[in-house]
Amino acid sequence: MTAPSPTEPALPGAPGLGKAPTARLADVDALRGFALFGILMVNVPFFASGYTLLDMPDPARTAWHDHLASGVVQFLFESKFYLLFSFLFGYSFTLQLNSAAARGLSFRPRFLRRIGGLFLIGVANALLLFYGDILVTYALLGLVLFLVRGISPRRALWVAGIITGVIVLIFLAVAVLVAVIDGASAAPTAAERATMLADGRTATEAMRGGLGSVVGERLDSLTTALPLILFFQGPLAFSAFLVGLAAGKRRALDHTAAPDPAAYRRKLRLIQLVGFPVGLAGSLAYTVAGPDNLFAPAAHLVTAPFLTAAYVATLLSVFRTARGARLAEVLARPGRMALTNYLSQSLLCGLVFTGVGLGLIGRVPYAAVFAVAVGIFAVQVVWSAWWMRRFRIGPVEWLLRAATHLERPALRA
């Protein structure tokens, strides 16, 4: 998908609309930090190769360890973490509504200013840093979420299921149509493959150029990425918004609100027992099927939310242990300034892989690419801890809060 308030929506890092209370939902921050890591692992290949957006294997990365590293990330990370970010957005949106009502604040104008600021930040990110930006989509869908904010938890879950089902049916219909017309797979012809390889080489070379060349390639890639984000990722993200909205109205992540702690733990175990087998089975089918099999993505869309839910249940259980509490504290620090960290991930990846910086695009094995991602997140963990000891909110969060409240908020802790 943050300012120091347990009532803030979990974009990557949006500020709350009211004055910051003294307490925070540390688990939500920690989950957001975990989501930041997963998002980075999924996004880094788009910086490291000009072929990724075309869904083509990079000819420079054909070794077994390249396939293994790519497969592991596809199996464990892909399509799971933007759902987690989106779920947290919907969850914290309900807390923000409750906080505004309790303080007698006018929610609408502040929320609309915040969404407008987020939209502008997303446009800048898409044009300058990463064509796969999700903030613009979050801003647009946030308006829809605001309009349906009174929906009941049960109805929100039904609508979320219907949206996901429609997307899955569309994928299945396309897969069946392709199978009937072209055979069992959607493998490109030799001429189509040659064109795609040429496009990948062109994109890679453009990203090795200077700032103008990189920005130009960003703009060109937007024409491919934007429809996928708006019409595929967007509806699924909104579905997760609604699930988060329902969970927020039930305070599902707040273990202190559970009337029966033992029953709460049993629910977490049940989510794990169902989520891991179903989610991992769908991920395995998706990973081994290859990009030409259009039936596997449909199965993956159905099962990915199960694995995301299992991740969340596992972390919530771990956070209740002594060592897990320390892990939650580590993850919560980058999670509290998630918008700043989300944008800085794109900036740092750009400096590593494009010609603006080291120009390593297409020159690093995939295992090393993901090692770079781990290194970037480690730097963010350390930097976030240093920053949050001195300041209330992240620097980009401060700008967005200023736009939200039309005032200069306090920054120093």
In short:
It contains 14 helices and no strands. It is mainly α.
Can you tell me about this structure?
The structure is a single chain. The chain is mostly helical and 413 residues long. 73% of the residues lie in helices and 0% in strands. The chain is globular, with a radius of gyration of 21 Å.
- Tally of contiguous helical segments: 14
Largest sheet: none
How far from one another are the termini?
25 Å
- Roughly how much helix do the residues carry, as a percent range? over 70%
- Taken as a percent bin, the fraction of beta residues is under 5%
- Give the overall pLDDT as a whole number: 85
- Secondary structural class: mainly alpha
Write down the secondary-structure element order: HHHHHHHHHHHHHH
Based on the structure, what is the oligomeric state of the protein chains? single chain
Set out the fold topology.
Layout: H1 26-48, H2 64-76, H3 81-102, H4 107-128, H5 135-147, H6 153-182, H7 190-207, H8 211-249, H9 261-289, H10 295-318, H11 322-336, H12 338-353, H13 366-390, H14 395-405
Helix pairs in contact: 1-3, 1-11, 1-12, 1-13, 2-9, 3-8, 4-5, 4-14, 5-8, 6-8, 6-10, 9-10, 11-13, 12-13
Which characteristics define this entry?
413 residues; mainly alpha; 14 helices
